[in-house]
Amino acid sequence: MSAYNEKTAESLLSELDNWNFFKDGIEKEFLFKDFNQALAFIVQLGMLAEKHNHHPELHNIYNRVSVRLTTHDANGVTFKDFDLAKAIDKLF
User: pLDDT for 28-60, tens place per residue?
Assistant: First the structure.
């Protein structure tokens, strides 16, 4: 499985809502009303990630959840990351 670089990922990024390429990964921050909503999103995202067998890096501060996707086996971004990003956007 080969990884995309920033230039080759541009067209796929244009299909996503507010995801950004950064250091061989794609990232997005989600904002919620409060901590409870942010935590509920993280739980839903976790179940979705299990179904995709692809697990994001998550960071939560109160009502903000930052998600980073990268394919560690490929040392960068692959189709797996873009597929999961599309699915995550549907949760939000």
Answer: 999 999 999 999 999 999 999 999 999 999 999
Class of domain 6-91: alpha beta
Tell me the residue type at 33: K
pTM beyond 0.85, yes or no? yes
**25 token code pair:** 């990964």
Domain regions of the chain by residue span: 6-91
Q: Is 36 exposed, middle or buried (0-12, 13-18, 19+ CB in 10 A)?
A: exposed
Q: For residues 66 and 68, give the distance between their C-alpha atoms in angstroms, rounded to a whole number.
A: 7
Amino acid of residue 52: H
Going by the DSSP 8-state scheme, the letter that residue 15 receives in this structure is T
